[in-house]
């Protein structure tokens, strides 16, 4: 039985345990999905945010992104697959990229 998770986390570590470069990739992705508010400040998407889990930088991806922006969600999952990045569920278990 598959349980849908609310968020998945893309680690800055490859499946081989190497650090992914560039080290600011999480911030770059969050910025590319951000918008400017009325106060002219950059606001991250509510579906993506930087996280630190066990000292490792991660990109937290809210699964609602799959509904609100299916193409963007697919691009993120393909990015993780192509770069062999670890994807974790809410319990820090390694999972396959959600389809």
How are the SSEs placed, and which strands pair?
Blueprint: E1 7-14, H1 25-32, E2 35-36, E3 42-43, E4 48-53, E5 56-62, H2 65-68, H3 70-82, E6 85-88
Antiparallel strand pairs: 1-5, 1-6, 2-3, 4-5
Characterize the structure shown.
A hairpin with a 2-residue loop joins strand 4 (48-53) and strand 5. It is globular and about 45 Å long. The model has no long low-confidence stretch (mean pLDDT 92). The protein has a single domain (7-88), classed as Alpha-Beta Plaits. The strands form two sheets. Strands 4-5-1-6 form a four-stranded antiparallel beta sheet, with helices on one face. The protein has a two-stranded antiparallel sheet with strand order 2-3. Helices cover 25% and strands 29% of the residues. With 99 residues, the protein is of the alpha+beta class.
Structural key phrases:
about 30% strand, 4-stranded antiparallel sheet, Alpha-Beta Plaits, alpha+beta, 3 helices, about 100 residues, globular
